[in-house]
Amino acid sequence: MELAIETRELTKRYGKQIAVNRLTLEVKPGEIFGFLGPNGAGKTTTLLMLLGLSEPTSGTARVCGHDPTREPLLVKRLVGYLPESVGFYEDMTAIQNLMYVARLNGIWDGGLRHRMEELLDQVGLLGEARKRVGAYSRGMRQRLGIAEVLLKDPKVAFLDEPTLGLDPDGTQKMLDFIVDLSRRKNITVFFSSHLLDQVQRVSDRVGIMLKGNLVAAGPIQELAKQKLGVDQERYTLEEIYMRYFREGETAKA
């Protein structure tokens, strides 16, 4: 089985600073993988290398079987990316923004407008489709970002802090979208978040980054058993994460 995402000894240095240190990771097709860590842990740097937006210092990465450094345009055609701060042309409507993205990606099929309306309906924005995006709330922009991701019919969706700043209703809808991407559309979801309770609710597996190093990866239940000695669902991802974090701080001291 071809992996959706695979890295081997992936490393990124900025001068003497190591942002990502020999990262070896596997993510299966259709999986929801939560990528965790504090600010500066190397999460965003990893995402940029997987997207072909930053070149690794050493090591290799493959996304959908392709090298994002050597085949960046091909990888970009196969994946979708929702950054933490979603950027749109604010003087354009949702439909106009999606049309612009479609043209950039060479999507010209005759049913494009119908497809865009379907996607906006799925994310609850069809009634706002002709409103200028400058008038959208953060939650609406995030939902439009999901529609943009789906427009490309990607094999992998990279989501960076997808629920940050959303109200409870918007958060639940975003989590439902994430599950739907994986379960109904069989899209691999690789998402970074600080909100551990949300990650626990939707992830098949998680990876924990500390100071550029992947210190743990696996199903949450297995990590709980390894780190907390708990074999039942009487634990939280936050407890697991904080145990790794404290151990990392102790080792640093």
Structure description:
The protein is an alpha/beta fold and 253 residues long. The chain has one domain: Rossmann fold. The chain is built from 9 helices and 9 strands. The strands form 2 sheets. It has a 6-stranded mixed sheet with strand order 5-6-7-3-8-9, sandwiched between helices. A hairpin with a 2-residue loop joins strand 1 and strand 2. Helix 3 (94-104) packs parallel to helix 5, helix 4 packs across helix 5 and helix 5 (138-151) runs parallel beside helix 6. The protein starts with a strand and ends with a helix. The model has no long low-confidence stretch (mean pLDDT 89).
Short description:
The protein has about 250 residues and is of the alpha/beta class. The chain has helices spanning about 45-50, 70-80, 95-105, 110-120, 140-150, 170-185, 195-200, 220-230, 235-250, and strands at about 5-15, 15-25, 30-35, 60-65, 80, 155-160, 190, 205-210, 215-220.
